[in-house]
Amino acid sequence: MRLAEIKVDCRGQNCPLPLVETRKALKKAAPGDVVEVTGDHPASKKEIPMAVKALGLELLEVEGEEGGEWRIRIRR
Amino acid sequence: MADQDKEMTGADKVTIIVHSGDLDKIYSALIIANGALAMGMEASLFFTFWGLQRLKKGGLEKGPLSKMNMLGLGRWMVLRRMKAAKVASLEKLLADFKELDGKIIACSMTMEVMGIRKEDLRGELIDEYGAVGTYVQEARGSAINLFI
Predict the structure, then answer these.
(1) Which residues in chain A are contacts of B96 at CB distance < 8 A?
(2) What pLDDT does residue B9 have?
(3) Which of A76, B16, B77, B88 could form an SS bridge with B92, CB 3.0 to 4.6 Å?
(4) CA–CA distance from B67 to each of B25, B28, B32, B88 (Å)?
(5) Mean pLDDT value of segment B83-112
């Protein structure tokens, strides 16, 4: 089976959309798929990892400057 | 809901009584409910009284502001600022809520008192029609209960 890499672009979106779009993408993903979310909503940079933990999924990477654009990678 | 998703959501639940039909309060209810679903909880919205008016066909975005409505001027200003801040529309938030398996209950007593017929409501969004017993059943298993 080939694992997919799903990209979600949340740049310019405000609360609660980055969280919601991330959750929607994870719901559609198959186990093992990687979801990569890009955004610039500051609170979501810390809240998406909180959601990932609550969902029991694997947080692969969080990168980005303070207050700028960020990229979060999650394994379903 | 698929089994794999059940595993992801766990048992935590948020139940919100949507009593107000005010625009800003409908926003609060839908943002909290969507946030809860996004963070792996279940979410139920119990629409009653003025809140139920918002489930009428064409009614979702029609509420006034709870404060400083100023005959619609304050409402217009707030909506304009929300648009500038790229806040999602209520229709988008409601569609997301349903896509993430959020549950909507319509209060049958309100329908009777206010003369609202089933065909007046957006039935495709409503999972259940119920009274206080239905709400209590939802609420007793919920970690978070809100009245908005």
Answers:
(1) 20, 24
(2) 40
(3) B88
(4) 11, 14, 20, 21
(5) 97
